[in-house]
Design brief:
The complex is a heterodimer of chains A (about 450) and B (about 230). Chain A has about 450 residues and is α/β, with parallel strands linked by helices. Among the domains of chain A are: about 250 residues, NagB/RpiA/CoA transferase-like (Rossmann fold), CATH 3.40.50.10420; about 60 residues, no CATH class. Helices cover about 55% and strands about 10% of the residues of chain A. Chain A has 23 helices and 10 strands. By secondary structure, chain B is α/β, with parallel strands linked by helices. Chain B has a single domain, classed as NagB/RpiA/CoA transferase-like (Rossmann fold, 3-Layer(aba) Sandwich), CATH 3.40.50.10420. Chain B has 7 helices and 12 strands. Chain B has a 6-stranded parallel beta sheet. In chain B, strands 8-5-6-9 form a 4-stranded mixed beta sheet. In chain B, strand 10 and strand 11 form a beta hairpin. The termini of chain B are far apart. Classes of the chains: A alpha/beta (about 450), B alpha/beta (about 230). Chains A and B meet through helix 2, helix 3, helix 4, helix 8 and helix 10 of A and helix 1, helix 2, helix 6, helix 7 and strand 9 of B. Strand 9 of chain A pairs antiparallel with strand 9 of chain B, so a sheet runs across the interface. The complex binds iron/sulfur cluster.
Chain lengths: ~450, ~230
C-alpha cells in the first residue's frame, strides 16, 4: 500500500466518524445550494449554456500549441514578460529569480492554487522573503499552517471560535464571535501590507489568446489590490487556462460564478493586459507570467481524459460530492480536492501512488452533473481504475479476475457457489472477513435471501 | 540543452497527434461567436433599453449595490454631495474626468484628483473614490471599469466606498456586448486593467456567511444620469 493511500484511509475514517464536523460542513454548504439554484434558474437554458462553455474550453485545449503561441505573442506585445516552466522546481526558480533581481522584501499573494501545487510559499520563505496570503480564507489557513480544505472555500471547515482564537494569538486582537468583525480584523491587518509589498503574486483563471489578457476572478478585492499596488506583478498559471476569444468569457465568467459559488458573477472579474501603460497613473512597472506544465501535457496526451484540462476550478463538483462531504478536503492530501482532484492527481503525481482516489467515489455522478464545462468526472474515475489494473495489477486483481472469469463461464459453478454462500452467510458474519474489516465496523451484512435471483426469476408468476 | 518553451511545445504537439472527440453535447451547438450562440440560453439582459434598466436595478438591489437615478448632471452633483455629507466623508478621491470634476467641486470635504498625482498611502486614507465606467451590464448587475475610466487600478478598489457616475446610455444588455464594446473602443490598445465589478467587495470565508467589505469597498453606489 502506498504511503499516500495509508494516510488517506486513516484520515478518511477519522473524519467520516466525526458527525459534528460533517454536520458543520453540510450546514455551511446549505446556503450555497439555495443560491446556486436561484442563479441557475435565471439561465434560460442552463444545459445548453454548459454546451457552449464546454465547447469554448474544448476548442482551446485541442489546439493548445497554436492558442498558447497566440496568447504569449499578444501578452508580450502588451509589455509583459513570459516565462516557461516544465515542472514545479523550474517555476519556483523563475519566481525566486525575479524576486532576487528586484531586491524584493515583502511579497503579497492572492489566491492561486497553482502556487499551492508548486509549494511556492515554502520556497519563498526559505529564501528569506515575507509572504502573506491576502485572500481571507487563505490567510486563515496560512496562520493555521494548514493546506486549503477546499480550493474555492479554503477554510470552510474552521469554526468562528477557532478563527477568533487564531487572530488573538497571531494578531493580538480581542476575541469575537462575529464573522463580520473577524473579516474587518483581517482587512485592517492586510491593508498596509499591500501598500508596503514590492511584489504581488496572483493566479489566473483564463488566459485570453486573442488579446493577451489574463482574467482573474475573485470576491474580496484582494487580487485587485495585489495587482495594483506592488511594483511587480507575477501571475502563475497552468498552460491549460487559455481560451481563444475574449468573447468566450461571456459564458465562462457567469457560469464559473454560478456553478462554484451561487453568484451571478463573482464580485471582481478583472482583465490585465500588461504593466502600467503610458499615461496610466498606477499599476506595476513589470508584469510577468509563469506558464507551468507540471505534467499537464501528460494528461493532454490521454485523449480519453483530455477534457479534465477543461476544468475552470469552480469547485462545484466538490460541493455536491458525498465523499467530499463525509471525509473533508484535507484527507485527500492533494492540491485539488474532490472529484476533479481524484481524476487529475494520478496523472500529475503518478497512478501507482494515487489510484486509491479513484475508489473515493460512490459513482453517483453528481459531480458530472454539476460540472459547468461537462467534464465526465465519474467515468474518468472508472478509467483510472481500469488503467491502474492494466498497468500494475495487484495480486488481488489478478486472482480475483481469473477466478471470476472461470466461475462466470460455468453457470452450474456459479449457482453452486451462490448456494454455499447463502448457506454459510450467517457463519461468515461472525468471522473477521479479509478486506472488509473497516466496512464491517459500521455496517451489518444483510440477511441472505432463501433463493438466488435466477431462481426467483424462473419461478416468478408474471 | 533545449529550453523549457520548446520542450513544452514539443510535448503539446506530440500529445495532440491523437485527436480527442468533441464533447457529448445536448445540442449541436455549432461553433460561432460564443456570446451569440449562447445568448438565448444565458440570463436575460433585456431586449429594449427600458427592459435592461429594469433588470439592472433588480440585479443591483440583490447585490446590495445602491442605484441612484438622476435626470441630469446637476442632479448628479447634488446626489453625490448629499451622500458625502450624510456619510460624513472627510476625504474623497476622484478620477479627473469632465463628468466628475463638477461632482468633486460640489463636495464640501477635501477632494483630490487621484490620477494627477498618485500616492497609494494617501489614497488608502480616503473615505470614497469616485470614478466613471466603460459600460454597465444589465444581465448581471456588473459595472465595467478600466484603468482608463477610473483613474488607474486602485481608485476603484482601495477607498472604503466606491461611487460610479455614469450615463444611462452606458447600460448594455449582456456581458458579450460589454466585451465587444471594450474591444471596439480600444482595439489592440486595451487599458492595462479592465474590471467587472459586481456589487461591493464580499467574502463568505468564515462559515460561508456573507460579509460585505472584505478588502475592497464596503459600499458601492451607481449614480445613473438620464
Ligand atoms: S471539474 Fe468541473 S465542477 Fe469540478 S471544479 Fe472543474 S469545472 Fe468545476
Amino acid at each position: 500500500m502506498s504511503d499516500s493511500k495509508a494516510i488517506f484511509l486513516k484520515d478518511a475514517a477519522v473524519n467520516a466518524a466525526d458527525g459534528d464536523q460533517r454536520a458543520f460542513i453540510r450546514k455551511a454548504l446549505g446556503g450555497y445550494y439555495t443560491n446556486r439554484d436561484l442563479q441557475k434558474a435565471r439561465y434560460r437554458d442552463w444545459e445548453r449554456a454548459r454546451d457552449a462553455a464546454s465547447l469554448a474550453k474544448w476548442s482551446a485545449v485541442n489546439d493548445l500549441a497554436n492558442v498558447l503561441e497566440k496568447f504569449t505573442a499578444n501578452f508580450e506585445r502588451n509589455g509583459g514578460v513570459v516565462h516557461w516552466a516544465r515542472d514545479a522546481a523550474e517555476a519556483r526558480a523563475i519566481i525566486l529569480k525575479i524576486a532576487e533581481d528586484a531586491k524584493a522584501k515583502a511579497i503579497v499573494k492572492s489566491k492561486c492554487m497553482t502556487s499551492e501545487e508548486i509549494h511556492l510559499n515554502d520556497a519563498l520563505e526559505k529564501a528569506g522573503y515575507g509572504v502573506v496570503e491576502s485572500d481571507l480564507g487563505e490567510f486563515i489557513q496560512q496562520l493555521r499552517g494548514e493546506a486549503p480544505y477546499h480550493f474555492v472555500f479554503p477554510c470552510m471547515h474552521v469554526k468562528r471560535e477557532a478563527i477568533s482564537e487564531l487572530f488573538t494569538k497571531h494578531l493580538g486582537t480581542a476575541p469575537t464571535d462575529s464573522p463580520e468583525e473577524l473579516t474587518m480584523i483581517a482587512r485592517r491587518h492586510l491593508r498596509q501590507l499591500y501598500v508596503d509589498a514590492d511584489i504581488g503574486i496572483t493566479g489566473a483563471n483564463f488566459l485570453v489568446a486573442e488579446t493577451g489578457q489574463i482574467s482573474i476572478t475573485e470576491n474580496e478585492g484582494n487580487a485587485r489590490l495585489t495587482a495594483a499596488l506592488p511594483r511587480i506583478h507575477i501571475a502563475l498559471s497552468g498552460i491549460e487556462k487559455v481560451v481563444n476569444k475574449l468573447d468566450d468569457l461571456s459564458v465562462l465568467l457567469p457560469m464559473l460564478a454560478t456553478a462554484g459559488a451561487g453568484q451571478p458573477m463573482t464580485c471582481y472579474n478583472t482583465l490585465y493586459s500588461g504593466p502600467r501603460k503610458k499615461g496610466e497613473c498606477d499599476g506595476p512597472e513589470e508584469f510577468h507570467i509563469v506558464l507551468l506544465d507540471n505534467a499537464r501535457t501528460r494528461l493532454l496526451a490521454d485523449p480519453e481524459q483530455r477534457d479534465a484540462l477543461h476544468c475552470i476550478r469552480c469547485g462545484a463538483c466538490l460541493n455536491v460530492c458525498p465523499i467530499f462531504k463525509n471525509i473533508g478536503g484535507l484527507a485527500y492530501g492533494t492540491t485539488y480536492q474532490g472529484p476533479i482532484g481524484s481524476v487529475i492527481t494520478p496523472h500529475l503525481r503518478g497512478l501507482k501512488q494515487w489510484n486509491h482516489l479513484s475508489g473515493a467515489s460512490s459513482l453517483c455522478g453528481a459531480c458530472t452533473d454539476a460540472c459547468p464545462v461537462r467534464i465526465d468526472l465519474h467515468h474518468h474515475l472508472l478509467h483510472n481504475r481500469r488503467n491502474a489494473a492494466k498497468e500494475s495489477p495487484t495480486l488481488f486483481d489478478r486472482v480475483f479476475h481469473h477466478g471470476f472469469n472461470f466461475v462466470i463461464k460455468r453457470p452450474w459453478l456459479f449457482a453452486t457457489g451462490g448456494r454455499i454462500f447463502r448457506a454459510t452467510l450467517p457463519l461468515l458474519q461472525k468471522l473477521p472477513l479479509p478486506y472488509m474489516g473497516a466496512g464491517m465496523k459500521t455496517r451489518d451484512l444483510p440477511k441472505a435471501p432463501s433463493q438466488s435471483f435466477r431462481d426467483q426469476w424462473k419461478h416468478q408468476n408474471v | 540543452m533545449s529550453d523549457a518553451r520548446s520542450d513544452i511545445f514539443a510535448r503539446i504537439r506530440e500529445a495532440l497527434k491523437v485527436k480527442a472527440p468533441k464533447p457529448h453535447l445536448k445540442t449541436d451547438a455549432n461553433p460561432g461567436k460564443t456570446s451569440e450562440v449562447a445568448k438565448p440560453w444565458l440570463p436575460d439582459g433585456g431586449e429594449t433599453a427600458d427592459a435592461s434598466l429594469a433588470i439592472l436595478s433588480e440585479q443591483l438591489a440583490k447585490l446590495k449595490a445602491v442605484l441612484i437615478r438622476v435626470p441630469d448632471q446637476a442632479a448628479a452633483v447634488k446626489a453625490v454631495a448629499e451622500l458625502a455629507s450624510s456619510k460624513n466623508w472627510k476625504k474623497v478621491a476622484y478620477h479627473g474626468h469632465d463628468l466628475l470634476r463638477p461632482v468633486a467641486s460640489g463636495l464640501s470635504c477635501e477632494t483630490w484628483e487621484a490620477d494627477a498625482t498618485f500616492d497609494k498611502q494617501r489614497l488608502e486614507g480616503c473615505d470614497a473614490g469616485i470614478t466613471t465606467c466603460e459600460s454597465i451590464v444589465a444581465q448581471l448587475g456588473a459595472i465595467l471599469v478600466s484603468s482608463a475610466t477610473s483613474g488607474g487600478r486602485a481608485l476603484s478598489v482601495l477607498p472604503h466606498v466606491h461611487v460610479v457616475v455614469a450615463e444611462a446610455s452606458q447600460v448594455v444588455p449582456d456581458l458579450g456586448s460589454a466585451l465587444a464594446l471594450a474591444k471596439a473602443r480600444h482595439g489592440d490598445q486595451m487599458p492595462s486593467m479592465l474590471s467587472f465589478i459586481t456589487g461591493p467587495s464580499r467574502t463568505g470565508d468564515i462559515e460561508r456567511i456573507l460579509v460585505l467589505g472584505a478588502h475592497g469597498p464596503k459600499e458601492l453606489y451607481l449614480v445613473l444620469v438620464g
